[in-house]
């Protein structure tokens, strides 16, 4: 083969796939844009739809911060993209966010990616709309009333004290980030589901915690349910949690209502009984799983330093706003306060690596798991 033929065939071998990829990307963009709401005459914002089916999910997952910075520089505060299987318009900036949050049910409507809808379920609060959302939120908010919250505090204190004591007794350093995740999971199990981890036993607690973390890790995945895919793993983990919740519900259904406010799941069951509606097991399992998940993994960007010029009320909204405002806001704030009191009252601590570097993908967390040494006030490390 002469040099000319070799070069031509090498060029064809390289050029052809590139050409095919560009054509596929263009066709994909045309297909996505053709699905635009025909009744809306406003133009779509600038942006790109990425590769067929994957959209720009891979870039977003692999280089989260850089991806967002590049997009912001190129297209400004509002742009279109394609993420986690859905065409998406990303909106930032306090004023724009205010319009979106206050426009829920009128201007816009929450629509989580397909994997979130499948794993958490169509009946959970985050996936409900209009009157169904309004009604269910009112019911769920009973579990976070002033009275209910006051009832939760002694159990919060008990769990927090137990953990702080374990950390104080530990000879080696404590990895605070996983320890806190375990602690929060135990508290959620007890206060929201009425399920005492002591009664479950260490092995079952471990299985549930692992399932919960696996579900959380895979909540945002491509919507492909085949063995070993993210969605498949997320659903498998979700089923383990549902099985435990179902057991709890059945146990609670056998108990006669005594008017005592125990845990969030009990409140939801009592509400169903009062209204005379048949207990919807699936809806209860979905609501309980959502509460367990607790919303704390949502929208980590909201914790980043507010941008200059974003000084309005909507410049920093860790708990969201408008009708979609977090139901667990007061619960989370009380829990944090009780935690700080327990910690400061009982011990001193040292972060062994100093101030931690944080990673933001998929959620904000310390890269080193936060190793720390705890000591009672009277002694030294
Ligand atoms: C520090 C802790 C927490 C933070 C930062 C947080 C943050 C958020 C945010 C930003 C939203 C709004 C999402 C949206 O705009 O659609 C939200 C919604 C929600 N959160 Fe939280 N959350 C926290 C704790 C909790 C806890 C402890 C629970 C349950 C016990 C909870 C349950 C929910 C639920 C059910 C929603 C959906 C509300 C709706 O769609 O109407 N969150 N959370």
Automatic annotation (TrEMBL):
Reactions catalysed according to its record: all-trans-retinoate + reduced [NADPH--hemoprotein reductase] + O2 = all-trans-(4S)-hydroxyretinoate + oxidized [NADPH--hemoprotein reductase] + H2O + H(+)
SUPFAM superfamilies linked to this entry: Cytochrome P450
Domain of life, per lineage: Eukaryota
Cell compartments where the protein resides: Endoplasmic reticulum membrane; Microsome membrane
Keywords: Endoplasmic reticulum, Heme, Iron, Lipid metabolism, Membrane, Metal-binding, Microsome, Monooxygenase, Oxidoreductase
Membrane topology: Peripheral membrane protein
GO molecular function: heme binding; iron ion binding; monooxygenase activity; oxidoreductase activity, acting on paired donors, with incorporation or reduction of molecular oxygen
GO biological process, one term: lipid metabolic process
Keyword Membrane on entry: yes
One GO term describing the cellular component: endoplasmic reticulum membrane
Necessary cofactors: heme
Predominant localisation class: endoplasmic reticulum
Similarity annotation: Belongs to the cytochrome P450 family.
Protein name (record): Cytochrome P450 26A1
Biological source species: Xenopus tropicalis
Record gene name: cyp26a1
């Amino acid at each position: 083969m002469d040099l000319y033929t070799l070069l031509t065939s090498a060029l064809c071998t390289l050029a052809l796939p590139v050409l095919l990829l560009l054509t596929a990307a263009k066709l994909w963009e045309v297909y996505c844009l053709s699905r635009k709401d025909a009744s809306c005459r406003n133009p779509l914002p600038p942006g790109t739809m990425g590769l067929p089916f994957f959209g720009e999910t891979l870039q977003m997952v692999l280089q989260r911060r850089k991806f967002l910075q590049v997009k912001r520089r190129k297209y400004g505060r509002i742009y279109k993209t394609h993420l986690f299987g859905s065409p998406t318009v990303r909106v930032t900036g306090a004023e724009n966010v205010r319009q979106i949050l206050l426009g829920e049910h009128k201007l816009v409507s929450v629509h989580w990616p397909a994997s979130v809808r499948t794993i958490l379920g169509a009946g959970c609060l985050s996936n409900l709309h209009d009157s169904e959302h309004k009604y269910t939120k009112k019911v769920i908010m009973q579990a976070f009333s002033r009275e209910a919250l006051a009832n939760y505090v002694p159990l919060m204190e008990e769990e927090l004290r137990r953990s702080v004591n374990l950390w104080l007794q530990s000879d080696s350093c404590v990895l605070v980030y996983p320890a806190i995740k375990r602690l929060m999971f135990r508290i959620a199990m007890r206060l929201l589901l009425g399920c005492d981890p002591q009664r479950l036993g260490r092995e079952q607690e471990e299985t549930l915690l692992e399932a919960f973390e696996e579900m959380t890790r895979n909540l945002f995945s491509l919507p492909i349910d085949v063995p070993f895919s993210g969605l498949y793993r997320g659903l498998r983990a979700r089923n383990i949690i549902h099985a435990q919740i179902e057991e709890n519900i059945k146990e609670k259904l056998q108990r006669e209502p005594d008017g005592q406010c125990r845990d969030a799941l009990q409140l939801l069951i009592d509400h169903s009984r009062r209204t005379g509606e048949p207990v919807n097991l699936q809806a209860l399992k979905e609501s309980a799983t959502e509460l367990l998940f607790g919303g704390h993994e949502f929208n980590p960007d909201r914790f980043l330093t507010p941008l200059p010029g974003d000084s309005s009320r909507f410049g920093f909204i860790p708990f969201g706003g408008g009708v979609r405002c977090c139901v667990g806001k007061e619960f989370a704030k009380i829990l944090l306060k009780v935690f700080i009191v327990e910690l400061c009252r009982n011990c001193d601590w040292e972060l062994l690596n100093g101030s931690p570097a944080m990673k933001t993908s998929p959620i904000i967390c310390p890269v080193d798991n936060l190793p720390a040494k705890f000591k009672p006030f009277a002694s030294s490390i």
